[in-house]
């Protein structure tokens, strides 16, 4: 009998593992951690948009609130490299890319203006940041973004150069701490 069990397990290990994964995804308490893990595995480095296809941010007049709930205008970042990320605490791909974005922010916060923009309640966001030990600059939507920055998907991230050209636009989780991204940002400084 033990030999039959061993043979069964050897023949069907992948089916058993797949079944366990399906069960874990069905259970609400384990669904998000599994989704985050899978998103981290499949996240690739975002690539630059071809120069001929790049759009330009011409209108920086866009208002949102900062973490202190003071009104801020994107105009303050005109002439500087900018990274804008739309995200939410309930979004598994957003959570998956946060560790890389935190590292990127830590390394480049003096050279690039970062905006992590959400429509969630400040207390929910503050709790999430504290729990995960993130010190990202979070902002809250007050008005619609300029047309070239509109997106209905989370996460969506834009890397914009000092002249307003959108160098990278990425929807979905990405590896934001890759050598490629850091080299792109280094060129913008």
Automatic annotation (TrEMBL):
<dbReference type="InterPro" id="IPR050553">
    <property type="entry name" value="Thioredoxin_ResA/DsbE_sf"/>
</dbReference>
<dbReference type="Pfam" id="PF08534">
    <property type="entry name" value="Redoxin"/>
</dbReference>
<dbReference type="InterPro" id="IPR013740">
    <property type="entry name" value="Redoxin"/>
</dbReference>
<dbReference type="GO" id="GO:0016491">
    <property type="term" value="F:oxidoreductase activity"/>
</dbReference>
<protein>
    <submittedName>
        <fullName>Thiol-disulfide isomerase or thioredoxin</fullName>
    </submittedName>
</protein>
<keyword id="KW-0472">Membrane</keyword>
<feature type="domain" description="Thioredoxin">
    <location>
        <begin position="46"/>
        <end position="189"/>
    </location>
</feature>
<keyword id="KW-1133">Transmembrane helix</keyword>
<dbReference type="InterPro" id="IPR013766">
    <property type="entry name" value="Thioredoxin_domain"/>
</dbReference>
<dbReference type="InterPro" id="IPR036249">
    <property type="entry name" value="Thioredoxin-like_sf"/>
</dbReference>
<feature type="transmembrane region" description="Helical">
    <location>
        <begin position="12"/>
        <end position="30"/>
    </location>
</feature>
<dbReference type="GO" id="GO:0016853">
    <property type="term" value="F:isomerase activity"/>
</dbReference>
<keyword id="KW-0812">Transmembrane</keyword>
<keyword id="KW-0413">Isomerase</keyword>
């Amino acid at each position: 009998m033990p030999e039959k069990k061993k043979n069964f397990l050897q023949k069907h290990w992948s089916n058993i593992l797949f079944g366990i994964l399906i069960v874990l995804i069905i259970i609400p308490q384990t669904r998000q951690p599994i989704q985050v893990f899978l998103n981290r595995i499949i996240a690739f480095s975002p690539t630059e948009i071809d120069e001929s296809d790049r759009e330009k941010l011409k209108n920086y007049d866009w208002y949102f609130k900062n973490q202190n709930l003071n009104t801020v205008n994107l105009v303050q970042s005109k002439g500087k490299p900018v990274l804008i990320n739309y995200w939410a605490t309930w979004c598994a791909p957003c959570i998956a890319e946060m560790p890389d974005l935190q590292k990127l922010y830590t390394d480049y916060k003096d050279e690039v203006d970062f905006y992590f923009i959400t429509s969630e309640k400040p207390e929910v966001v503050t709790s999430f940041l504290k729990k995960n030990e993130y010190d990202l600059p979070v902002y809250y939507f007050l008005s619609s973004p300029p047309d070239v920055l509109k997106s209905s998907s989370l996460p969506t991230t834009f890397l914009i150069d000092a002249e307003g050209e959108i160098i990278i636009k990425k929807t979905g989780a990405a590896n934001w701490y890759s050598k490629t991204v850091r080299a792109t940002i280094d060129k913008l400084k």
